User: Fold these one by one.
Assistant:
Number 1:
Amino acid sequence: MQEMPETTLEAPVIRPEAAPLLSVRDLTVNFAAERGRVRAVAGVSFDLAPGETLGLVGESGCGKTVTAMSILRLLPVPLAEVTGEIRFQGEELLGLPDSHMRQIRGNRIAMVFQEPMTALNPVLTVGEQVAEALRLHRGLSHPEAWREAGAALSRVGFPDAAHRLGQYPHQLSGGLRQRALMAMALACDPELLIADEPTTALDVTIQAQILALLARLKAELGLAVLFITHNLGIVAQTADRVAVMYAGLIVEAAPTAELFRHPDHPYTQGLLGSVPRLDFSRPPGGTLAAIKGHLPAEPPAGCLFRDRCPLVHGRCLEEPPWVEVGPGHVVRCWNYV
C-alpha cells in the first residue's frame, strides 16, 4: 500500500536548512472596520535563514505587505491587532518596547518600499535621508554621516554619488529613486532586508538592473531577503524558496525550482497558468488562462479558495490540512490528503 503524505491541521513551519534568522509563528493581523474586525493575515508561519531569499507571492490584497509591516511593527495601533510570534535572532519582536524596536528597525532589519516617490521625503535631499539613518543608528556626526551616505550611494551604483547627495527625489529618475531607497536600507549593514515590490512601476531594463544589484549586494553582504512580489518571473530568478499567499494564508511553499516544476495547489497552478509564455505553447489567438472570481471580502468557511477553485468538492467546506508532498514542499489542500 502506498504511504499517504503526512498531514497536519496546524500551520506549517516552513523551515530552511540552516538555523533561522527570522522565525514567524501563527502571525494573525486584524484591522478595525465599521463592520467589525477584518482579518488581513490568518496564521502565517515561516522561517528565513541567514543569506537566504524567501519569495512571498500572491495577488494584490492577499496580505503580503501587511505581513512585512507586522515584522517591522509599522502597522497603526490600535487599529491593527497583531498576534502570534515574530522572533529575530531568537528575540521576540512583538513584545519589545518601542525604544528597543526602533534600534532594530532600519538598523538590523531594513525595508525597501514599493513606491520610491512616496517613500522618499520630497523636501529633503537624498544625502540627508541616507545620512539620517547613519546618525540615528551609528551615532555619526553630520560630516561623517554625509561621507558614509556618499559611499552608500556609490555601493548601489549611483553615478557621480558625491553630486547626487545634494539632489532632491524629484530630480532623480525612477531607477535612481529606487537605488536611493536601497542605499538608505543598506547604509547600516542590516542582517535582514525586506523588499516589498522593489521593481514596481519600473521598465523592464531598469527592473533587471535593480534585481542584478540586489543579487550582488546580497552576495557581498550576506543578506537574508524577504522578497515580496506578485511577479512570478522575478521570483524564479531571485528566490531560494517560495511561499504562496492567498487571502491572508500561505497555501503552498517549496524550494523555487520544485514549485515551478510541480505546483500542487490549484491557486499556484492558476498563477503560473496566467503568465504569458514565449514558447508558442498557446494556440494562435488563444487567451491567457485566468483565475475566476476575486479575493473574498468575507472569507468563506473551510477552504478560502473554494469559490474560485476548479477542483472544488464537498470536503472543501472544511478547513484543509497541511500536507507534505515532498522534501520542503507543503500544500494546504484536500486533494492531497
Number 2:
Amino acid sequence: MPGRRKQPGSDADALAGLVESLAVLLDAGLTPRSAWQASAADGVHPIAVAVVRSAQLQTSCAQALLEEADTDEVLAIAAAWQVAEQSGAPLGHALRTVAETLREVAEAERETDVALSGPRATARLVSWLPLAGAAMSVALGADLVRAVASAPGLIAVGGGALLMLCGRLWMRSLVKRALVRSAMAGSAEELIAIGLAGGASAGAALDASRRATAAVGLPPLDDRAAQRVLRLAASAGAPAAELLTAAARQQRRVARADARRAATTLGVRLMLPLGACVLPSFLLLAVAPLVLSLLSSTTAVFR
C-alpha cells in the first residue's frame, strides 16, 4: 500500500535472509558468483540483483558487493567477506555469523519501536494541544480577530504560535534521538572470530578486521574489548573464537537494553518541552484570547 510505514527491522531481516541463503548455497558447493546469481533470480533481496550486475564488471564478488553497498549493514557483510577471503575462513561460516547479527539488529529495532510507540503517540497528540485549545476558545465565544488586532493579543497569539512550533520541533528532536541506532554491536569481535576460523593468528585476525573495516569505509571499530578477550584466551589457553563470539552476543544484549532504556526515558524527557513550550503556548493561544475578548466586551458595556 503506497505511503504505508515500513515495519521496523524489515530491512535487516530481509538482508539476513539473503545472507543465510548465500551461506547455504556456498556450503552446497556453488561458487560465489553462482550463489549470488541464484539469490538474485529467487528475489531474496534487491541488493543481490545489483551485486550480480556489478560483478560483471568487477574482478570479485567482494568488490561488487562493496561497489553496491548503500547501508552500514551491507558494508558489514562486505567486511566479513573480505576477512574470510584474506584468512581463508569458510565463507558460509562468515555469512552465518553476519546473519545472526542482522537478526538481532532487527529484533532490537522492533523492541525499540514498541517501547517508543507510547511516547511517540503522546508527543504527536500533545503537540496539537495549543491549536485545540484555540479552537475551543473560539467555540466559547472568543474573538481571535479582535484579540490579534490589539497589541497584547498580537503578542499572546504570536508568542503562543512560536512556542508551539518550538515545542513540536523539540519533541520531534527527542524522538529522533531515541531512534538513532549505533553501529552493530560486537562487530569487531565477530570479524576477528572469522579471521581465527581461517587459521590466522590472533594478531593477524585483528589486523585483517581492521584492514577490512577501513577498506569498506566503515568507521574504525572499537576493538579494545576484543583485545582483552584475546589476551584472556592466550593466558588461559582457551579457544579465542568462542570467547569472542560470546563477547559479541553480550555486547548486542547490552545494546538492546540501552535502546529499551532510551525509549523508556523518552516519556520523561518529553515533559521538558511540554512544560516549557506546549503548556505556555496553550495558555497564550487558548486562555489569553478568551480573557482579552471578555475584557474587551466588559469595557464596551461600561462605556
Number 3:
Amino acid sequence: MTKPHNMKTRITIMAALLMLAIAAHAQSGKQESANRILVAYLSWGGNTQHVAEYIARQTGGTLFRIEPAKPYPTEYKPCTEVAKQEKEEGARPAIKNRVADWDQYDTVFIGCPVWWWTAPMIINTFAESYDFKGKTVVPFCTYASTYRDETLARIAELTPAANHLKGFGAVDRNTEAIAQWLKDIKVIK
C-alpha cells in the first residue's frame, strides 16, 4: 500500500506535468496560428517595411520582403524613371527569392508603396508566382498624397482566386490606425 505522503507527491507531480503539457499545447497553437499569416511587402525607402513590420508584430505573421533580382536605383529620380518604364512596358521584374512553405499560409498581407498611381510592377510578378486559391489577401500600401484606393484595388485584382479583406493605406510610416484596422477586419482581437 502507498503511503499518503507518496500519493500526495505523485498527484502534485502529475498535476504539474499536466499543466506543462497544457502550456506547451497552448504555445504550439500560438506558433501554428502565427505561421498562418504572411506579410509580403516591397519597400524602397523603408516606409512600407516599417508598416509591414508593425503588421507582423501585431498579427504574429511571418515577414517576406519582395526583393527584385535587379535592385531598384537607390536615388529617387532614377528609381521613378525605372518604375515608370516598367509600368509602360507591362514589365514583370524578377524576384530574388521565393516564399518558403507557401501552402502553410492562410492569410497573405501584400504591401507596397504607390508608384505611378498604382502598385509597382513587381507586385504583379509576386501575385502571378503563387496560387492564391483558398487564401485571404489583405492589401496595404504607403503613399504620400493620393492613389491609395487604386493601389489597394490593384492588389485585389491581381489575386482574383483569393478572398479579400479591406485594405489599409498608411501615409509614410504612420502606424497609428493599423491596430484598429486589424481589429476591424478581425485579424486580431
Number 4:
Amino acid sequence: MKRLLTLLFLAFTLSASAGSPIYKIKVKNADGKIVKMKAYKGKVLLIVNTATKCGFTPQYEELEALYEKYRASGFEILDFPCNQFGAQAPGTIAEIQEFCTSNYNVTFPQFDKIDVNGADESPLFTFLKKEKGFGGFDTNDQRGKFMHEMMLKKDADYQKSSDIKWNFTKFLVDRKGRVIRRFEPTDSMRDVEEWIEKTLK
C-alpha cells in the first residue's frame, strides 16, 4: 500500500511538473526561427490569428493598446497572420510587419504566417481549438448576425465544428497554460479586456 501511494505521488508530481501541453509546442517566428512556447510559461497570453486586409483589421489598434497597458503585469499578445479567410493576409511576413508597424504601431510579437484549419494547421491552433470549441456568434450584435448568416450560406452545420471561423479569433491562456476563453472576432474588446484583467490577478 505504501509503495502504491509513493508511485501515485510520483506520477502526480511528474504530471504537475510537465505543465500544460501548450508548452511542448513549437512555432516559427517572423524571422523563421523556431520558438518554444515554454518561453511564455508564467505569462497570460492572448493568441490571435490576424489579417491585414480584413474588416476587423482595426482591432490591431485595440490589441496594441491592451499590450501597452498590461505588458508590465505579465501579459503577452502572440500574433499569427493567416491567409485562409478571404485571402485577407496577402504578402510576406515582412510586408505584414511593415503594414502593422506603420499603421498601428504594433510592438507585440508577430509570428510567421500559418494555417489555423485543415491538414496543414499549426499544432498550436489544433490544441487551442480542442480546448475551446466554437461557442457561436452573438446574433444580437449586428456584426455577429452578419457573420452568422455568412457562415450559414457556406455551411449549414458550421456551428458544430471547432474550426476557426474568421480572422481575429482570440484565445486567452492563463499563467499555467490553461485555455480559459475563446473570443470570436465580433466579441467586444471590452469583454476581452475584462477577462485579461481577471486572469492577471
